[in-house]
């Protein structure tokens, strides 16, 4: 954990920025894998970690805006639990470690919330994403599960987004730790990518690295030589010489801050000229995006600039045609680049997206664009110092999408389908770095994973 003063200051800042009422912050519980005593790996709720810092199941926090008190609910362990799991700190001791002096048993939670509701005190809560917490919120507030989403406190969402979006020095240090682990993971994958190796072997190895140096992976690993599928979690193929392999993988630090990197490289380490031509477009787009990142610039504008770089490069290869700016305006580039340039990152790999993507990535000034490709941009708002974001342009050749656009003559004026059809077995290329927005520009977090063709060939 961080020093208890950090958690106290976060709760006090939230209290100062909110109005009246009580704020409900449920922690996560154990989730059974196939029976009660055999649980999935526990992952604490990120908001609970941010405000209360305790990484154990069965806790619930309340920030009382009326009294100015913070309350922690949980049960001390029983003798039977001690026999199986050993002694643990008491709830009072846990609470004191994060600056909370008011502790109660878990059952007292129901009475406390009921008393507040009877007095007409507003209850603030975030969008619940786990079934057990949805049921719990229904039980303690009386709000049916089906109505919880519409009763979410937008005031609380907005206050927490404003706080969590800007990372302090301690959070940045944790993200850098996750980036160090991510570097080890990706270099190991590059070294193992030899013909005849099973994708499973590499995926298992790098996930082991994530566990060896931190809290495990920050999301399910994407590792495949079928990179035309953007989120391909199938690791069942034997690597073939010359095929491109995408590895999109990240780690969590022990305090659960995330990294998220992507590299694409040829099995055996040598690009063909055809692969190199596409790779260099993506690398140029990635490097340019980093150079454009600075406070005050919208990420939507950078995404559109990168779309032009990709369209221009593909035009030079004869895959696209016509006016590049007009092609991007019509969304023709999205046949090859159908996702957004990046997203926020922190305690979650897609930071705070449980609050609602639009609340995190957009605001009253910058709204989502309802166009294929750009509509998948998770983060478009104006950048601020100490935001942490990803930069992940890509080019993919998705046979089903190509066939659909060709048959329906979508953006036919900007795409040379005869040439594109020569790339149906190409796969895809994505390059992703984690970026800290600095006072004057941007800094890649962690040691940069080998990315130039020359660096990759030396691994």
If you had to describe this structure to a student in words, what would you say it looks like?
The chain has 459 residues and is α+β, with helices and mostly antiparallel strands. It folds into two domains: 161 residues, Creatinase/prolidase N-terminal domain (Creatine Amidinohydrolase, Chain A, domain 1); 289 residues, Creatinase/methionine aminopeptidase superfamily (Creatine Amidinohydrolase, Alpha-Beta Complex). It has 16 helices and 15 strands. The strands form five sheets. The chain has a five-stranded mixed β-sheet with strand order 6-5-4-1-7, with helices on both faces. Helix 1 packs across helix 7 and helix 10 runs antiparallel to helix 11. The longest helix is centred in the middle third of the chain and has 24 residues.
Briefly, what is this?
This protein has 459 residues and is an alpha+beta fold. It is built from 16 helices and 15 strands. 38% of the residues lie in helices and 13% in strands.
